Amino acid sequence: MLHILASLLLTPTADAPASRLAVIQPAPGFALTAQDGKALKSTDLKGKVLLVSFIFTTCSGSCPATTSRMVQVQQELTRQGQLKDGRVHFLSITLDPARDTPDKLRDYLKLYDAEPATWSALTGSADDVAKTVQDWGMWAKPAANGQLDHPSRIFLVDPRGRVREIYHLGFLKPAWVAEDVQLLLGEK
């Protein structure tokens, strides 16, 4: 009897195909400004796999490492031909909207050779950014030397707008992330 119950619980249905990437939560919405000065809303990215990070351009801590790893993921996905159809997009949302203007964010992405066709760096009013940061379960507190203390997380969002993985910088291997992105691209 237990074997039958277990097989029923583990058998995928039409509504919930089996995946090693569980649905964690719906991805919070946002309406911010990209590095090109144009408005970008979460609804504009519907149907895409997203990798979402939170950074600030004057960071001397984890932000450079986070962005560098995301660039490595972008390069791996480019090598695999996964970025040519526009189904994957990278987002870096500032934690410091007072200093991170669209121009500063554009320069930041250039510094890391991030491909702007598939990567948006976002800022906005202090209130809009604070709401976005809070909605995503992130936080930032003032620290020494004008820095911000904050967690280093990258959120993987599926095309249906659901968070499917949350990576911590210490456990982020570009090949693993690329594999997870491919898994989501292959889901129906």
List keywords for this structure.
single chain; 188 residues; alpha+beta; Glutaredoxin; 8-stranded mixed beta sheet; two-stranded antiparallel sheet; globular; disordered N terminus
Your description of this structure?
With 188 residues, this protein is α+β, with helices and mostly antiparallel strands. It has one domain (22-169): Glutaredoxin. 32% of the residues lie in helices and 23% in strands. The two termini are 32 Å apart.
Q: SS-based structural class?
A: alpha+beta
The amount of beta strand, in percent, is 15-25%
**Helical proportion?**
25-40%
Distance between the termini: 32 Å
- Top CATH class: Alpha Beta
**For the largest beta sheet, what order do the strands appear in spatially?**
1-10-9-4-5-6-2-3
Order of helices and strands: HEEEEHEHEHEEEEH
Task: Say what the CATH topology is.
Answer: Glutaredoxin
Report the CATH superfamily.
Glutaredoxin
Largest sheet: 8 strands, mixed
Overall geometric form? globular
Low-confidence stretches: 1-16
Write the layout of secondary structure elements.
Elements (H helix, E strand, L loop, with lengths): L1 H9 L14 E2 L4 E4 L4 E3 L7 E7 L6 H18 L8 E7 L7 H10 L7 E5 L2 H10 L5 E2 L5 E2 L3 E5 L4 E7 L5 H13 L2
Helix pairs in contact: 2-5
Briefly say what this structure is.
The chain is of the alpha+beta class and 188 residues long. The chain has helices spanning 2-10, 62-79, 102-111, 126-135, 174-186, and strands spanning 25-26, 31-34, 39-41, 49-55, 88-94, 119-123, 141-142, 148-149, 153-157, 162-168.
